[in-house]
Write a structure and sequence with these properties.
single chain, about 80% helix, about 0% strand, elongated
Length: about 130
C-alpha cells in the first residue's frame, strides 16, 4: 500500500467519524477533558504556577512532574477515547487501526486539556 493511500484512508476514516455512530463522544470527551483542564488550571493559578503548556515548552526543570500531573487528570479520558474509538472501528470498519485510535484520542482529550488548562490559569491569575 502506498503512503498516499494510507493518508487518504486515514483522512476519510477520520471524517466519517463525525457523522457515524457514537458521534456523541466527539462532544462528551472534549467536555470531560475541559472540566479536568479548568480545575487543574484553577489549581495552577492558586499555586501561582505558570500556564501549563508554556511551562512545558520553555524548558522547565519540573517538566516530568508536570506531565505526570497532567496525565493523572486527562489519562482516563484519553484511555476512554482510545477504547471508544476501537469499539467504533470494530462496529463500522470491522478492523482496528491503532494509529487512528491514538490520533482521535489525542484530538479529543489531550488538545483541549492542554489549551484550556493554560487558559484557565491565565484568566484566574488576572483577578
Amino acid at each position: 500500500m502506498k503512503m498516499d493511500d494510507i493518508w487518504v484512508r486515514i483522512t476519510s476514516d477520520l471524517a466519517d467519524r463525525v457523522t457515524g455512530p457514537m458521534k456523541f463522544r466527539l462532544v462528551l470527551q472534549p467536555v470531560m477533558a475541559s472540566i479536568f483542564a479548568i480545575l487543574d488550571g484553577l489549581k495552577d493559578a492558586k499555586a501561582q504556577n505558570p500556564p501549563f503548556f508554556w511551562a512545558l515548552g520553555t524548558g522547565s526543570d519540573q517538566r516530568a512532574d508536570m506531565i505526570k500531573d497532567g496525565w493523572k487528570s486527562v489519562g482516563k479520558v484519553f484511555i476512554l477515547a482510545v477504547v471508544l474509538d476501537v469499539i467504533y472501528q470494530l462496529v463500522e470498519l470491522h478492523f482496528v487501526y491503532p494509529g487512528e485510535a491514538i490520533i482521535v484520542a489525542f484530538i479529543l482529550a489531550i488538545v483541549p486539556y492542554v489549551i484550556l488548562r493554560g487558559l484557565a490559569n491565565r484568566l484566574a491569575s488576572r483577578k
